[in-house]
Specification:
Elements: H1 2-10, E1 18-20, E2 37-41, E3 44-46, E4 49-53, E5 58-67, E6 73-79, E7 82-86
Antiparallel strand pairs: 1-4, 2-3, 2-7, 4-5, 5-6
Length: about 90
């Protein structure tokens, strides 16, 4: 009985090809954010990623001070080899 409970708690959903942290985005998946996720771009781990796409090879990160017309952080697209993983 304890083994099945342990397996259920460690079961994680598969990471999608494209994911966003913004709940208003169509690429937002709430179940994935219940776990700690890491993103690597060109082999270096990034902690400021707002959205990523593995197949197209880009991540979007917030610009330090710039805001868009809705008051949201302006996102910069950085291209490279993207890896998503659970920590």
């Amino acid at each position: 009985m304890n083994d099945t409970t342990k397996n259920e708690t460690t079961a994680r959903p598969a990471l999608p090809d494209r994911l966003s942290v913004n709940p208003r985005s169509p690429h937002y998946v709430a179940e994935i954010f219940e776990h700690d996720i890491g993103i690597k771009l060109n082999g270096k781990e990034r902690f400021d990623v707002e959205e990523y796409c593995i197949s197209e090879g880009w991540v979007k990160a917030a610009a330090p001070k710039a805001l868009d017309r809705r008051g949201q952080p302006l996102l910069m697209t950085v291209k490279g080899t993207v890896e998503a993983f659970y920590r």
